[in-house]
Amino acid sequence: MISEFGYILLFILGAILLVMVVLGISRLLRPDRPGVEKNAVYESGELPHGDARLSFNIRFYIVAIIFILFDVELVLLFPWSTVFGDVALLEREGTAWLWFAGLEMLIFIGVLALGLVYVWRKGHLDWVLPENKTEEFRSPVPPRLYDEINKKYG
Questions:
Q1: C-alpha–C-alpha distance, residues 74 and 67, integer Å
Q2: What is the pTM of this model?
C-alpha cells in the first residue's frame, strides 16, 4: 500500500518524466540549421552597436518598486476578500468577526494609502522627461553654395 506521500512522489516523478519526454521529442523533431546569422548575438540579423550598459533615469526604478508594492497589496487583498465573502463563515462566526476583519483591512488599506500620498507628495510619481539638448547644426558647406546649386538645378 502506498502512503499519501508516496502518491505525491509518484506525481512529481511523473511530471519530471513527462517534461523530459516532451523536451526529447521536440529536440528530435526541431530543425537544426546553425549559420552565421543564427549564431550571432541577435537572431534578427541586426548587428549590435553601442554599449549594452545604458543609464536609465532613477525615477523608472522608483516607479517600478512602487508598482510592485501596490501589486503585492492586491495579492494580499484577494485571499482576504475570498474568505471575507464566504457567507457560511460569516454566519458561523458572527458579526463581531465581520467588524474586526473589516477594520483590519481598512487599517491595511489606510497605511498603503498614506504611503501613496507620501510618494505622490514627494514627487516620485511624476515622470520628468529629460530635456533634449540639441546643438545648432552648422554645415561645413557655406549657404551660398547651396543657393547656387538650387538655382542651377532647381
A1: 11
A2: 0.44
Q: What does the domain layout of the chain look like in residue ranges?
A: 1-31, 57-127
Following CA atoms 37, 39, 44, 49 in sequence, which dihedral angle do they give, to the nearest 10 degrees?
Answer: -100
Please state, in angstroms and rounded to a whole number, the distance separating the CA atoms of residues 61 and 113.
20
**What single string gives the DSSP state of each residue in 35-89?**
-TTTTSSSTTSPPP-S-S-PPPPHHHHHHHHHHHHHHHHHHHHHHHHHHHT-HHH
Cα separation, 60 vs 124, whole angstroms: 9
For the chain, what is the mean pLDDT?
80
> Phi/psi zone of residue 126: left (φ > 0), alpha (ψ -120 to 50 degrees), beta?
beta
pLDDT recorded at residue 52: 65
The single-letter code of the amino acid at 141 is: V
